[in-house]
Amino acid sequence: MAKKRIFSGIQPSGNLHIGNYLGAIKNWVTLQDEYESIFCVVDLHAITVPQNPEELSRKTIEIAKICLAAGIDPEKSAIFIQSHVPEHAELTWILNTIAKISELERMTQFKDKAGKNWEGVGVGLFDYPALMAADILLYDTQVVPVGEDQVQHIELTRTLAKRFNSKFGETFVIPEPYVRKEGMRIMGLDDPGKKMSKSASSEYNYISLTDDENAVNRKIKKAVTDSGSEIIYSDSKPALKNLINIYSLFANKSVKEIEKIYVNKGYAKFKNDLAKVITGFLVPFQRKMADLSDKVVLGILKKGAEKVRPLAQKKLQEVKKKMGFVL
Ligand code: AMP
Ligand code: TRP
Q1: Are 255 and 160 contained in the same domain?
Q2: Quick check: is 198 in a domain?
Q3: Are residues 220 and 84 in the same domain?
């Protein structure tokens, strides 16, 4: 049986934390064996908020390095830069004529990012979900692995695909979101009530993928814990629950196994080991990143675009033909 196809995108932000890795990239690495995988560095999405041009190019390469160092294998998966396949922008224009203002207005991410005075906000930010729908629909994507916050955009993608199909005939595959339970939300180390975020005011909120051993030790030591001294996984101990989740994902050990290891052992030992488990991932990861040159990475991205572009071109031609464009 043919493998199902997945597509996912990640914004070029160089400053990723372990929540981004555990919640997104780590899942991609696992999925690439089971699915035909296409991963996209979404620079066109990034410019929906102001970007410094030098930083945008640096971060575009850096995020690709992060993906490759984390285990995305260009032999198995295609990884490419969104703007290298111009069909994404062209299909977005077409989908703009299918999407309704009222649908885009309902998007939580838009409301969060635009704030109250949204009359002054760029149209690109409003239109962001149409571009995301184009990304997904160009490749007959069946499954879209994303964080919980993106599910609403996939629902809109499904709506647009169905609307197009019923107006112009079967054209698009209707994609399904795929949200993994574990790793879905890594919470802040200084505040387990909010998700870990690189825009947090304190650096003690997150562990960055570029943090060294010292920083990791410091941050884990300072991470808030709950009252009591037992290492147990419970909703009544949200801080510890978060730390156990992080441990479990990095060590590939179940929560039960971890609880068993730390019976009668207390927080100091647990935190000490947790810091080791995290650096056990970060040190070789950072070494791999340092070994990847910009040139090699750009070569991989260009090859990725060459591989997927024919699929995008074919789908766009089909769309245009059905709509009555002269080809
Ligand atoms: P962002 O940096 O918020 O645009 O997110 C990039 C990717 O990382 C998305 O797939 C998010 O769902 C995921 N992500 C961001 N923050 C977290 C977090 N604290 N826990 C788990 N996943 C996250
Ligand atoms: N909007 C997604 C995010 O911020 C990134 C993204 C862009 C994406 N295009 C996509 C994810 C297509 C999945 C499929 O995380």
Answers
A1: no
A2: no
A3: no
Residue among 36, 4, 17 nearest 308 (CA): 36
Query: Structure tokens of 161?
Result: 């695909």
158 CB-near residues (< 8 Å, 6+ apart)? 174, 175
Shared-domain flag, residues 167 and 302: yes
| 314 tagged catalytic | no
Helix pair 123-137, 151-168: axis angle to 10 deg: 70
Domain of residue 277: give its range.
Answer: 203-289
Quick check: is 198 catalytic?
yes
Show pLDDT as tens, one digit a residue, over the chain (327 residues).
789 999 999 999 868 999 999 988 999 999 999 999 999 999 999 999 999 999 999 999 999 999 999 999 999 999 999 999 999 999 999 999 999 999 999 999 999 999 988 888 999 999 999 999 999 999 999 999 998 889 999 999 999 999 999 999 999 999 999 998 755 689 999 999 998 998 888 999 999 999 999 999 999 999 999 988 899 999 999 999 999 999 999 999 999 999 999 999 989 999 999 999 999 999 999 999 999 999 999 999 999 999 999 999 999 999 999 999 999
pTM score, whole prediction: 0.93
Residue 303 and residue 276 in one domain: no
Which atom of ligand 2 has the smallest separation from the CA of 147?
A: 15
Pocket test for ligand 1, best of 20, 48, 187, 242 (most atoms within 8 A of CB): 20
